[in-house]
Amino acid sequence: MAKKTKKTDSIDDTTAENLSLKTFSSEKFRFISGVFFLAFALFSLFAFISYFFSWWIDFDQISHISTYDLFVDSASKINNIAGRMGARVAHVFIRNGFGISSFLFVWMAFGIGMKLLKIPFFKLGRLLLHSAFFIVWGSILCGFITLKLGKWSILGGIFGFEVAYYLRAAVGVPGLIFLLGGVLIVFLSVAYGMKFQFYPMVKKWFEKTTAETKDDVNELLNDMNGSGATEILETTHNEDTFITISDRLKNEFEVDDEVPFIIENTEDSANTETVEELEEDVLTDSTEVRHTIETPYDPYEDLPNYIFPTLDLLEDYGMKNVDNSKQTDELMANKKLIENTLKSFGVEIAQIKATIGPTVTLYEIVPASGVRISKIQNLENDIALSLAALGIRIIAPIPGKGTIGIEVPNLSKQIVPMKVMLDSPNFKDTKFDLPIALGKTIQNECFVADLTKMPHLLMAGATGQGKSVGLNAIIASLLYKKHPADLKFVMVDPKKVELTLYNKIERHYLAKLPNVEDAIITDTKKVVNTLNSLCVEMDTRYNLLKDAQVKGIKEYNAKFISRRLNPNDGHRYLPYIVLVVDEFADLIMTAGKEVELPIARLAQLARAIGIHLIIATQRPSVNIITGIIKANFPARIAFRVTSKIDSRTILDSGGADQLIGKGDMLLSSGNELVRIQCALIDTPEIESVADFIGEQRGYPGAYELPECADDANGSGGGSLSANERDAMFNDAAHLIVSTQSGSTSLIQRKLKLGYARAGRLMDELEDAGIVGPSQGSKPRDVYIKDATTLENLLNNEERN
Question: pLDDT tens across 740-754, in order?
Fold first, then answer.
């Protein structure tokens, strides 16, 4: 009986401990703490203000008041409106502490309260650091002022008075002034990026001094030589313009500009120099001096106060409440089942070990000598039957190891929150240019990849397997890491519902065509125009790289920041551009080659100039993911699919059909396959992040892409003359009218032309009004119905 009572007591103690931990880690505790800090800030504010009007009256009472008297009513009267407690708190902070600077403690408490209540406010770390600096610096400054007044006051508090007193004794009054001023300038430069330009002040003083000296010298020369004596040199310092010796002599003697003046040395007439050469040296030196004092270009100067999204906008989904004992029991049971199953089929095992992941456990088997790998591979279904598990995958052998891997889904699966991924050292300390946090591997490591090294990403999987969540995880990773000046998104959403939340960040991160209302592209025609516009942007950027004599965007931007490229020559800071397509299959079905060809061209060439593609589809079939697409997308992510054929279409190997869904995915980069549990970021979290960014000051509008040829020329009206058209234009027109089929492939086959030239001919026919606009995969409408009408149209255009 005693044992039973003891066990009950221990259970009660554990329950109480867990309850207390849950209480202090809950949202309720954060709310109570936040309200407490706000109340303390308000209470302290009233106490501090009242203290300045009543401290000399209450001094004798509050300086010796006991803790007991703080809470017990006594005969003594306190004039502070916050009572004994408020008077005592104000006395400690202001008189015994930092003086008037103590008001910043109120600001700090207010900021902590707002942070705990998750109310958007200043960045807490910056607020606390800056407030702490000005508390100390302001207290010393006020203490120094009271020293100069010759008497002590509460202006700087005891801290400020004492520190100022000892500093004045150590470095003197001028030294203390320079010390306080220098520390303030350094802090403002580091913390707020302020630039203190002393050169213009020194220059202005020099100009004034030089002008006065010149007047005195000229007056002295006039007194010595009589009025009308020639001044030797006159210099002005306005905008680097020099009135040189040559100009002075030409003005005095009215000499023609083409006749160079020679200054002769009376001691050695052989040493002569033209004035023009002297002027050139002076101007060259001034240009070099001016170049050396130029500061580097700051790409963030338009949004200097931009704040990155904070992690408290995301959820952790209870990651701390994981029952390790259940996982251990499950692990040991599966080990025994695998061993018994293999032994029942005559397969001996030398060793088996397990690695637990968030959703899958990897069992590494070292088979006994003489056991064939193929024998274990053939037992895949038998192992799945014995374990009663879905999605058993055998890796035989594991690359780089002499073992065979069996991946078994866990009974209790863990969610991988996006918050955990973004807070991991792998992401926070990464040096990648475009880091994307994908999820956790079987080894429970946070997997972070660099999009610039991929350099494009193809995502595919069946409906509801986590593809859209994976897209959002990639976008969120980039939003948490890259400044709006460094990154722009071009978002294509044919489904019109997946990416619409990002409309709020249009002025910060999105790019679009000029005069287009919505930054999230949903219309197929606008998608084609946008892709062609990205091709134009790509060509433009390559021309800029060629002029700058660099090979990549990083070297180009580094050269531009150091001001070695002239903006007047068209050079500019180039942000990365990431094209995100949520449903590629729909675009292929409606626009076909008009979409596939520019995407293939971008995938082939755009890496070096900072344009990267992320394409997702829920139909991983060969007519959607064609050979051209696969050849240019070496990095691919496969979520669960329904068949081995689809898996091979995406990854060129099986495995995706054996995944368990809900974010379980395989990443293929080259010849390596990595199994990852995708990070979870839900719609409310995306909305919070978008709101946080959208509420900040942004650029005047979205980043504008260049207009493509179709947008500039329009779709009709005969903007091209007969001389500007392709030599095969008339043949193509007669072919289309005679067959009454506006098909690009028809022109390609009958006239034996390449697809690009046939496409241009079709655009010219549309421009001439012979055929209508594109209708996706369907042939265009033919407006001219007979050959006679066509001949009349062509003859009229030739006459014009």
Answer: 988 888 888 888 877
